[in-house]
Amino acid sequence: QVQLVESGGGLVQAGGSLRLSCGVSGRTFSSYVMAWFRQAPGKEREFVAAIIWGASDTYYADSMKGRFTISRDNAKNTVFLQMNSLKPEDTAVYYCKPWGFGSWGQGTQVTVFS
User: Fold this and answer.
1) Which of 42, 64, 95, 112 has a beta carbon 3.0–4.6 Å from 68's, enabling a disulfide?
2) Average pLDDT over the chain, rounded to whole?
């Protein structure tokens, strides 16, 4: 069973940056497509970004393109989300998860104030 531990969230002023990390248990981590999602208060969870196992292909939701960068370190079973030019509307709990299977972790709260 895959276990996920997200970290790196916090309180940041608009225009600032944060780097989220997600530690993933599992012997076959390098074969997973990993993704980040987020859920804002009162809204449904939404897709943020995904990265394939080889890390050569990445995908982003339109509103994150050019501001967020997903990356991974297969040797450390960790996936990252670098978030730049943050906006108040980026405020949400951010989750990582293998694409298509597994349970949600506890997430990490990101709060952007203007």
Assistant:
1) 64
2) 93
